[in-house]
Fold this sequence. Notes:
Mean pLDDT: 93
CATH class of the largest domain: Alpha Beta
Helix content: 10-25%
Radius of gyration: 21 Å
Order of helices and strands: EHEHHEEEEEEEHEHHHHEEEEEEEH
Amino acid sequence: MASESQPQFDTVVIGGGQAGLAIGYYLRKQDRNFLILDAGERIGDTWRDRWDSLRLFTSARNSSLPGMSFPASGDYFPTKDEMADYLAAYVTEFDLPVHLDTKVESLTRDDDRYVLETGSDRLTATSVVVATGPFHHPRIPAFADELDPSITQLHSSDYQHSDQLSAGDVLVVGAGNSGAEIAVELARAGRSTRLSGRDTGHIPSSVFNSRPFWWLATRVFTVDTWLGQKVKERSQGRGDPLIRLTPADIRQSGVERVARAAGVTDGKPRLEDGSVLDVGAVVWATGFRPDYEWIEVPGLALDANGYPVHEKGVVDDEPRLYFLGLSFQRTPVSATINGVCPDAKYIASRLNARG
């Protein structure tokens, strides 16, 4: 049994990004004894640490958490730092109990309570919401180790500006939103840039941020409907479609589209068409791999891709373990700022039903 001297909570939320803060809003309304743990030094650091020119794909109208609108006109696209500041203000506005610089190293269960080890502390909870999102460790191809050491390599999560890269041409691998935006930024900074990867499609920003799109995404294309299930199946294993940039924008910026990266020849990146590129830097916009190995509870299973098996964020065989902020958790926009809100409300309702 857990020691009575350990801090005990009704609910602990792991992750203080938009998902964790959204569920925190509803837990505060339920007057629960809860705590939000976040590994960052400041609220919003996951946004602040991204590349300098990043702006959200969602407009201010679609970038708000429950109870507090984003402070800008509806059609404005916030910068990463503005979003970070909004999250910090949100914590203050609702007096959310966030403990920063606190990484949860393990989650286990002792009888009917969960035990969380943070390195400096050990605490227990009746319920746990894992709100760490779907993006954990950078996914970089194994052949990257074979590239010549003179070639600068950065994952998109570490890229901030062009000055980080060695002189010479740049290859950006991964043609989703992050890769395309970084490639265009580099080209506009005067770097000769190639963008490698398959076409992920395009949804115009005016459509993606429209009210009809969000109504369809949150009411029709859900995991509860046949249409939603088909959309989810088709989206798995594919990069997210371009939203703000169009294929024409990429061409007009001077970025050269090339085949997918396939390996290394003589220390240089080789493409699927056999081309070998002489570049000074490679930016890997190749996504992330999940990490849930620190969760050691008997009822949690991981799927073939390493993600938790759940139903709309609820783990059937773990009576009080929940997930929030996963891609297509309930809808195609579940991992977005506004899209996580109804998911958070749903998880809060399940918590409330259990008492």
